Amino acid sequence: MSRYGDYSRDPCPWVILSDTGGAFAMGAIGSSIWHFVKGAKNSPKGERIIGAITAVKARAPVLGGNFAVWGGLFSTFDCALKGIRQKEDPWNLIASGFFTGGVLAARGGIGASARSAAFGALALAIIEGVSIAASRVFAPPPMIQMQEIQPPPSPR
């Protein structure tokens, strides 16, 4: 890592756009697969392909958009917390999950918003905990430095 920060990711405004687009793509692709199968299953025997394509066209963009909103809000809160706290740690991600869950459920009232915020924080805490545990379990063992063995002096 350089002394000016980690350059492996773009700066925050671009990360938000990138994450939003990536979330849309992930939601649209996953939803396309799901709704293709569901549309084919629920269509009459001779019209399964048409029914599957119709279901994908109707629902995949909607779920992709829902994923994009979640990803964009999460990334925005993450970038805001990085700027405010001047740290990059798992607490930023957990708090971002909390805020994202709360904002997305705000239309349902304070109770629904609080429950959704708590669930968002819990979900991200579990994900971060598993990630940290997996990195510790699968990390290579530390290298043991061997002292260089000096050959005994030769007799003259």
UniProtKB/TrEMBL annotation:
Cellular component, GO, one term: TIM23 mitochondrial import inner membrane translocase complex
Keyword Transmembrane helix: yes
GO annotation, biological process: protein import into mitochondrial matrix
Entry membrane topology: Multi-pass membrane protein
Annotated transmembrane regions: 91-110, 116-139
Primary location recorded for the protein, binned into one broad class: mitochondrion
Any one GO molecular-function label of the UniProt entry: protein transmembrane transporter activity
Keywords assigned by UniProt, alphabetized: Membrane, Mitochondrion, Mitochondrion inner membrane, Protein transport, Translocation, Transmembrane, Transmembrane helix, Transport
Keyword field contains Membrane: yes
Subcellular location: Mitochondrion inner membrane
Family to which this protein belongs: Belongs to the Tim17/Tim22/Tim23 family.
The protein, known as: Mitochondrial import inner membrane translocase subunit TIM17
The species this protein was found in: Diversispora epigaea
